[in-house]
Prior knowledge:
By secondary structure, this protein is α/β, with parallel strands linked by helices. The protein has one domain: Transcription Regulator spoIIAA. It contains four helices and five strands; from the N terminus they run ββαβαβααβ. It has helices at about 25-45, 60-70, 80-90, 105; strands spanning about 5-10, 15-25, 45-60, 75, 110-115. A five-stranded mixed sheet has the order 4-3-2-1-5. Helix 1 runs parallel beside helix 2. It is globular, with a radius of gyration of 13 Å. Residues about 100-119 have low confidence and may be disordered.
Amino acid sequence: MKHALQYFMHYGPAAFRFELAGELDNEGAHRLERDWLSASSVIGEHALIVDLTFVTGAGKEGCTLLARWYATGARFVAQSKVSRKLVEVITGRPVSEFTSAGTASEDGTWLPFRTSLAA
Length: 119
């Protein structure tokens, strides 16, 4: 069963964090990228952290978006088998480097900024 992508955006003093859940399909990737472009225009040089722990799969455009973000310095959090495999595919690197979820104080994010749910 496919679950539509849901995500939370957290904005803190040092980082901007997406927490994703569900299927990062092509439609979800377009929504996510649109929201990132809107947010990035006001957040400046904050680090981008993408928590993929609850992602259940990713389509071609979802993988392309994540690869672009990784190439520009995004950090990934991956604590499930599916998310670790996805990070391996995107980065070409072992997942052990991406398994620490950290806390809000460690990654510089805090209260939820916005929630996006599929309509």
